[in-house]
Structures are given as structure tokens and as C-alpha cells.
Design goal:
Elements (H helix, E strand, L loop, with lengths): L1 E5 L4 E4 L27
Antiparallel strand pairs: 1-2
Length: about 40
């Protein structure tokens, strides 16, 4: 997964789906977590 664009309120992501075993994928679930310890600079 990589970030392909961002604004102050959104992020655009891109990824290559994994091998599905020839099964139909019904959905992807994306979760996020804020990093309170991020240092700026």
C-alpha cells in the first residue's frame, strides 16, 4: 500500500490486491490508527 495523494482532510491510497485463490473477494477492510508520538521536523 502506498499514498498517492493527500490533503489536510483526505488520503488517496493505492495497492495491488493479493492472490485470491480464484475466489471472489467481497470487500476490503481498511483500518487506521493515529500516531500520537509522531515527531515533526
Amino acid at each position: 500500500m502506498r499514498v498517492t495523494g493527500s490533503t489536510s482532510r483526505s488520503v488517496d491510497l493505492s495497492w495491488s490486491p493479493p492472490y485470491s485463490g480464484n475466489s471472489r473477494l467481497l470487500k476490503y477492510l481498511l483500518t487506521y490508527e493515529e500516531d500520537d508520538n509522531k515527531e515533526e521536523g
